[in-house]
Design a protein that fits this description.
The chain is of the alpha+beta class and about 80 residues long. It has a single domain, classed as Alpha-D-phosphohexomutase, C-terminal domain (TATA-Binding Protein, 2-Layer Sandwich), CATH 3.30.310. It contains two helices and three strands, in the order E-H-E-E-H. A three-stranded antiparallel sheet has the order 1-3-2. Strand 2 (about 35-40) and strand 3 (about 40-50) form a beta hairpin. Helix 1 (about 15-25) packs across helix 2 (about 50-75). The longest helix has 24 residues, at about 50-75. The protein starts with a strand and ends in a 6-residue tail after the last helix.
Length: about 80
Amino acid sequence: MRVRATITMKGPQASQIAQKVALALAPDNLSGMSTEIAEGMATISFGTEKITTLIATVDDLLMNARIAEEVLEKVGKRPQ
């Protein structure tokens, strides 16, 4: 059985923040993962054969997204 997940990042400054976070995470994308950036949001989609792999991937992505957002805040690149 194949399981799929989609993570969408959006918010008040989503077009700027979500795009930067998604692009920061993109180098870690595995085959079968895709990142789409549209106005106001960024979407990462992926699938796997094992639910445990999917859960671990979601956990890693969310943790890395949080870290990328914190870095943006610290370097002053986050829109006001």
